[in-house]
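Re-running the complex after MR caught last week's input typo. The corrected sequence lines follow. Everything else is unchanged.
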Amino acid sequence: MKYGIAIFPSKEVQDIANSYRKRYDPNYALIPPHVTIKERFDANESQINDIVKELRNIAKETKPFPLIIKKVSSFHPVTNTVYLKVQPVEELVELSDKLYNDKFPNERQFAFVPHITIGQDLSTDEHSDVYGSLKMHQFDIEDTIDRFQLLYQLDNGSWTVYETFKFGEG
Amino acid sequence: MKYGIAIFPSKEVQDIANSYRKRYDPNYALIPPHVTIKERFDANESQINDIVKELRNIAKETKPFPLIIKKVSSFHPVTNTVYLKVQPVEELVELSDKLYNDKFPNERQFAFVPHITIGQDLSTDEHSDVYGSLKMHQFDIEDTIDRFQLLYQLDNGSWTVYETFKFGEG
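Corrected-run output:
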């Protein structure tokens, strides 16, 4: 099965993200707004049991940290993806780094740019319009993150949560 | 916030349910296929912390149990809802009963009929067609349930998992 690991911000932040996603993100219906901390990977049942144990260890040694969003940014010209830029606080970067240690399948393929996607697969014109109108907008979001989730993907592309890992618990 | 408590069956069962839901269930995009074990309720932050503690106690004393599906059924004429009928094994019924004890808001409003919705809000003609063609179909699904999930609802009607509760863990 395909798995991924993500953080869901508070309902308030998810509602803000969805107000854009419903118009600009074709994946709107497949998963709630999230910060991916480990990209999709394959694992069988025995592997996932080991991975769950390692995720518990990692969660146990992680402390709650702030999720801070000030502005929108874009991956253009690599992809026409517009996102809420999540500040790369040390705890978040360390957490994601740990999910690429040698107990996990898949190495990191891109530098970690923490973000909540609000638009993707946009045409270049759409991208210019959306990013042009949002890039001047100041956000003042500060949330506390105290857990992450392991998800698996269904055949229709949507994601179901397999397990929640709360920080400080093992 | 609005919360609900549900069981997600295995990916295989979810994929089967989605093959019908995509055509017949307008809630297809709002939540993966699931068995609701406590209907939507309101709780504030302090209440939900107490509820989470109680859910841990309940999970700790629950043992994994089978989820068995043999056939499709319908709530017609009450509502034009078609569902995979989940056999009401004792552990499942007991688990749902505990979620209506006096530590939780909301009393049970209907008898507990465990099910995975695959079609709803159908016109009477659609309902006759869909249920007519599915009611003779024999399913032979047996799955093991070892966890349940507390979810909350976003403004767009979709659901995000707040926490997973694994049986036998507290």
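None of the earlier attempt is carried over here. Chain A is about 30% helix and 30% strand. The two ends of chain A are 24 Å apart (CA to CA).
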